[in-house]
Amino acid sequence: MAAPKPRQLALALPVEERLDLEDFLVGSSNEAAFAVIDVWPDWPEKVQVLIGPPGTGKSHLAAIWAERAGATRVTAALLHEKDPETLAGLPALLIEDADRAGLAEAALFHLLNAVRRTGTPVLLTARAEPGLWGLKTADLLSRLRLAPLVTLESPDDALLGAILVKFFLERQIVVDTALVEFLRARVERSVPSMRALVERLDNEALARGRRVNRALAAEILRADAE
Fold it and tell me: What is the DSSP pairing of strand 72-75 with strand 93-96?
């Protein structure tokens, strides 16, 4: 009996997620949101709320805007540690995860009042619109509802396929259309799940000394289903 082929050691090399403008993939689910970010600085309202479920491109779009606007990033839960007048004097502000537990409501309310005076542009990111954040401060909710919503939807089939290709290319792996369609039709329709699958395929291919192909993908998906 032939000895089993030894597995190679797969080094966990860092893979840099590309967050430049040219790396953002535009489809029907995100083109309206992309257009709002792309027309910066021509915003009729200086405060905007960027919403969408995980994996829809919020962080990528926010990073594009922050780079263009020279924005300072602040996590919403840490706003109470900052002076609102100082923040309102900055060129621009990116307030991330505004709907997460621990939001400093009083600090955000004072900040929004301050930026109305200074005209500082602010982009807030969240998973849902402000009415669903569970806010206890009625005046804050009223203020947030005045801000336009920039909405990202879950990606459609075409965009999911393009995202899969992007994840492979980030790992310097060239794959054919047949493999992309095979994976797209069989994996969970979420960007984080697709990123995790591409990482697993890459690691398995390196460990086995094989190419990433449909046979390897089918074997891994079959093992997961058992």
Answer: parallel
Q: Do 121 and 69 touch, CB atoms closer than 8 A?
A: yes
Owning domain of residue 123 = 21-151
Specify whether the CB–CB gap between 51 and 150 falls below 8 A: yes
pLDDT value of position 115: 96
Give the tens place of pLDDT for each residue, 195-204: 889 999 999 9
Looking at this protein, which amino acid is placed at residue 190?
S
- Rounded CA separation 136/111 (Å): 17
Give the pLDDT mean for 100-126.
93
Do residues 56 and 137 share a domain?
yes
Q: Copy the structure tokens of residue 123.
A: 């982009």
Q: Burial of 71 by CB count in 10 Å (0-12 exposed, 13-18 middle, 19+ buried)?
A: buried
Identify the sign of the CA torsion 133, 58, 12, 201: positive
Backbone φ, ψ for residue 181 (5° rounding): -65, -40
Percentage of residues in the chain with pLDDT exceeding 70?
90
Number of domains the chain contains: 2
Query: Is pLDDT above 90 for 224?
Result: no
* Token pair recorded at residue 223: 């093992």
Q: Supply 153's token pair.
A: 């939807």
Helix pair angle (31-38, 58-69), 10° resolution: 10
According to DSSP, the β-strands at 122-126 and 72-75 are unpaired
